[in-house]
Write a structure and sequence with these properties.
By secondary structure, the chain is an alpha+beta fold. The protein has 15 helices and twelve strands. The chain has helices at residues 3-14, 27-38, 68-71, 81-87, 98-115, 141-156, 168-175, 191-194, 208-216, 222-227, 230-248, 279-299, 332-346, 381-384, 390-408, and strands at 19-24, 50-52, 65-66, 92-94, 119-123, 126-130, 160-165, 183-185, 265-276, 302-313, 318-329, 352-364. Helix 12 crosses helix 13.
């Protein structure tokens, strides 16, 4: 099978999965710069030749992060500080503050989790986000990424690059394109145009030793590697060579590995693009959240015995309200109606910044559940012999919707109430 055909098939199979890679621009330097400004320092380290790394007094160690002005002098991450000082004698050195960096990292992940809970943190300054479950909340992945990027800068004071793709490795590659503070896409169908012309050294996981081995094979660009014979690459670079060949062809079936807490509960929340002050908007958001939570419950074969609704006002005050269900459930409509009732009971009319729904007191779907008497449909005596409890009808409906969305994508079928309002 030709590479182009294989790529096309892979893209067709995953075109409904959207993954983002979010990477802080020069994290250590940005976070140190913000801290120094907060402490009265009058110059932003990001605007002058500056680096983070080593011991400032002894001037040894390596460059951990650099400003854009420092990069202009040819300073690169990982080089000895003494070399960096030769390139730029007026270079400002700042020692690393790992306690600060971990605190900033937690702030970033908390903010991102408000937007989408399906996050895989891979380092202190980068993570993957499975955008698919919240795709209905934004006009497009690019619009969502711009919203995320702007919110990070506004609330936390630093910038991020965001890569968007249908595969993790391509999302990672996209986030490394031109910086800072930018959004890039690299879908499977875009790799020949956007990725193959790049030098093979730009490929994720392709280090100096691998680059040299490939150079001896006259493989200079990522496209050269993608079009090369897989067995020849494996003969020279073993299993790592196979991995590089697959990455060059956009082959990566790995999922965003989120840390779930099913034993405690499954939930979802979203920070609104604009503060909401009307129930119609809130109800639409709650329905979308209920669909997400109920789908995750069903995927985990769990039913919830308790539902809670969370509100964060524009003042950042947070309130929650919860209730125990008569009959545990994972049905969308039941969760939505319960969350909506809870919302009506606690909302005081203040503009809302964030909404969330959480399920808890989980149990397996295999455990017996006592039916509510009101689940039985109010039908004539003649019809009751063939009537199903309404909860079973809802379960059948949920199963059908789940199967359609898993096969054709999250947006393949939508409730009319979740469609974007028509513009006048």
């Amino acid at each position: 099978m030709r590479i182009e055909e294989f790529t096309r098939i892979c893209y067709t199979e995953t075109m409904n999965r959207i993954i983002m890679h979010i990477d802080v621009n020069s994290a250590y330097l940005s976070w140190s710069a913000i801290e120094k400004l907060h402490n009265g320092f009058t110059v932003d380290l990001r605007t002058i030749p500056a680096i983070i790394g080593g011991d400032m007094a002894k001037r040894h160690g390596v460059v951990l992060a650099k400003s854009i002005p420092a990069k202009a002098y040819g300073i690169v991450t990982g080089e000895p500080i003494v070399n960096a000082l030769r390139k730029c004698p007026n270079l400002i050195l700042e020692s690393p503050n790992h306690e600060l960096y971990h605190r900033r990292s937690r702030e970033l992940m908390t903010l991102l989790s408000d937007i989408c809970p399906d996050i895989e943190q891979v380092s202190v300054d980068e993570c993957y986000m499975d955008y698919t479950p919240v795709s209905n909340n934004y006009p497009s992945p690019e619009a969502a990424a711009e919203f995320i990027k702007e919110r990070v800068q506004k609330e936390l004071g630093f910038t991020v690059n965001i890569g968007i793709s249908d595969r993790k490795v391509l999302a990672k590659m996209a986030s490394d394109f031109k910086k800072p503070n930018l959004v890039h896409t690299l879908y499977s169908y875009e790799i020949q145009e956007k990725m193959w012309p790049l030098p093979v050294s730009s490929l994720f996981m392709c280090g100096h030793s691998s680059v040299e081995t490939l150079r001896k094979l006259e493989i200079i660009t990522i496209g050269d590697l993608a079009r090369s014979d897989r067995d020849i690459i494996a003969a020279h670079l073993k299993s790592h060579g196979i991995l590089l060949w697959e990455y060059a062809n956009g082959i990566d079936d790995s999922e965003v590995s989120t840390i779930q807490t099913e034993a405690k509960g499954i939930g979802n929340s979203i920070t609104l693009s604009q503060d909401a002050d009307d129930k119609e908007t809130v109800y639409r958001v709650l329905l979308s959240l209920a669909e997400s939570v109920s789908l995750r419950l069903r995927d985990a074969d769990q039913i919830a015995g308790m539902i809670s609704t969370e509100i964060k006002y524009h003042t950042f005050q947070k309130v929650t309200h919860q209730t125990t269900l008569v009959t545990p459930t994972n049905h969308t409509d039941t969760i939505y109606q319960t969350a909506r009732t809870l919302f009506d009971e606690i909302w005081d009319g203040t503009p809302i910044r964030l909404l969330g729904i959480r399920s808890s007191k989980l149990s397996s779907c295999e455990e017996p559940v006592q039916l509510n008497l009101f689940d039985l449909s109010d039908k004539t005596k003649e019809d009751k012999a063939n009537a199903l409890p309404s909860s079973q009808k809802q379960a059948k409906l949920d199963d059908v919707l789940d199967s359609i969305r898993k096969r054709y994508g999250a947006n393949a079928i939508m409730r009319g109430s979740l469609l974007p309002p028509k513009k006048d």
